[in-house]
């Protein structure tokens, strides 16, 4: 059998990816399908860490947070990522997988705190590690948490799951002539003002020479194909 292209990857799932076609919250069928995709990758022997967003439950800059102190709203957003992480870990448990949730903010009765050596140990043991509560700091995003944790654990790539199957020359929903890049350098993505991740996350990946692959979470089997080295979505490289 051919070997996977990676030994250790960081998967970034947006909170919205958990909604499926619902308008908020967690869609059961969607999370189960995601877990099935993830289990394929774990079965290949790839070490997998996940950062999950919270946008399906709460976003610090959303209309619902208007008038709120930004830092307070952001802490609510981080707590939303903890809920998603718990839901994901539980769905994995039901699927027969072993997952550990580690939180960047201290809520030890609920989840264990993020401790880097412990996270590395879990990964080496073949457990899926879910990083909850983003970076633990307001004014950041879970994309930045993905870049940060990906760098810390020595992931070879950040796999950013979105609803669109890659990075396009323009918004494919608005411009029918938009074309998808198979790969693009960090510098070209910047000069062409292409939105891959938020600026902080993007800068961290570029500095750390950590490639990002943007792919569609909606396409069945895409995650496995990427891990096997197939050219799916868009690779953003140094
Ligand atoms: N958040 C934060 N610091 C972090 C990560 C997240 O303050 O390090 C808050 C922020 O309010 C954000 C919310 O949590 O709007 C949810 O995260 P994000 O928007 O990245 O989730 P996604 O869009 O991936 O669902």
TrEMBL record:
It catalyses: UMP + ATP = UDP + ADP. It comes from Noviherbaspirillum suwonense. Catalyzes the reversible phosphorylation of UMP to UDP. It is an enzyme of class 2 (transferase). Its EC number is 2.7.4.22. Inhibited by UTP. Belongs to the UMP kinase family. Homohexamer. Pfam families: AA_kinase. Keywords: ATP-binding, Cytoplasm, Kinase, Nucleotide-binding, Pyrimidine biosynthesis, Transferase. Pathway: Pyrimidine metabolism; CTP biosynthesis via de novo pathway; UDP from UMP (UMPK route): step 1/1. GO terms for molecular function: kinase activity. It comes from the Bacteria. ATP binds at residues 12-15, 55, 59, 162, 168, 171. The gene is pyrH. This is Uridylate kinase. InterPro entries: AceGlu_kinase-like_sf (IPR036393), Asp/Glu/Uridylate_kinase (IPR001048), Uridylate_kinase (IPR011817), Uridylate_kinase_bac (IPR015963).
């Amino acid at each position: 059998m051919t070997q996977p292209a990676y030994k250790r990857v960081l998967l970034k799932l947006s909170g919205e990816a958990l909604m499926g076609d619902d308008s908020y919250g967690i869609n059961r069928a969607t999370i189960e399908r995601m877990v099935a995709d993830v289990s394929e990758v774990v079965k290949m022997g790839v070490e997998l860490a996940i950062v999950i967003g919270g946008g399906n439950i709460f976003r610090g800059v959303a209309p619902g947070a208007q008038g709120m102190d930004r830092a307070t709203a952001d802490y609510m957003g981080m707590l939303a990522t903890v809920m998603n992480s718990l839901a994901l870990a539980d769905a994995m448990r039901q699927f027969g997988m072993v997952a550990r949730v580690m939180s960047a903010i201290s809520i030890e009765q609920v989840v264990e705190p993020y401790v880097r050596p412990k996270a590395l140990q879990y990964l080496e043991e073949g457990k899926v590690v879910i990083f909850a509560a983003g970076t633990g700091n307001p004014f950041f995003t879970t994309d930045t948490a993905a870049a940060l944790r990906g760098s810390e654990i020595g992931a070879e790539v950040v796999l950013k799951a979105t609803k669109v199957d890659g990075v396009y020359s323009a918004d494919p929903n608005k411009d029918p002539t938009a074309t998808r890049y198979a790969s693009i350098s960090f510098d070209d993505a910047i000069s062409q003002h292409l939105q891959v991740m938020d600026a902080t996350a993007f800068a961290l990946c570029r500095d750390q020479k950590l490639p990002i692959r943007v792919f569609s979470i909606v396409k069945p089997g895409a995650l496995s194909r990427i891990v096997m080295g197939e050219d799916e979505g868009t690779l953003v490289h140094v």
